[in-house]
Structures are given as C-alpha cells and as structure tokens.
Amino acid sequence: MSxxxxxxxxxxxxALANQAQAGAIEGxxxxxxxxxxQEGFADALYGAVNRIxxxxxxxxAQTRAFQAGDPGVELHQVMMDGQKASVAFELGVQxxxxxxxxxxxxxxxxx
Length: 111
Fold this sequence. Notes:
single chain, mainly alpha, 2 domains, 4 helices, 0% strand, Flagellar hook-basal body complex protein FliE, FliE, cilium, cytoskeletal motor activity
C-alpha cells in the first residue's frame, strides 16, 4: 500500500472513531432490535421449546385417543401429528447442537 493510501485509510479510521464516540453511527444491533421487536433470544428459545413440547403432547394425546378407539380420531391424523412432532424435535436437537458448537467456537477464540 502506498503512503497516500495509508494516510487515507488512517484518516478514515479516525473519522469513524470520532463519529462512534459522538454516537453518530447507528450500530447493526439497533437495526436488528427494531426488526425483531422487544423479544429477546431467551424468549424466542423458550417459545420454540414450548411449541416443540406442545406438538409432542398433541401427538401423544392423539395416539392415546386412537388406541382407546375414539371415533373422532383417524389413523392419518395420528400419523401426521406424530411426524410433525418428530420433525420438530429433530429440528430442536439440530439447533441445540449448532448452538453448542458455536458456543464452543467462541469460547476457544484467542483474544
């Protein structure tokens, strides 16, 4: 890099640092918060786990009703609910595994 290029980069870095100190630059975090709303990560995770749990409970209830001979429950409904619960559970397990891997990667980073 030539000397004028270095000087240009340094001046841009100083200008950005001054803007950041003055609060003129709006970070991406605030843009994400406005797009997502007030719900945090913990709330989203809690809601997802509850939805997975409710799908599993619904599938179990449908299975018990079918086994008991409830005339309002048909086999295809039981199978569909069971598959929905299975897919949701597998998604939850894969998401958990990826989160654990990401956490381990962050923890192993050199500072």
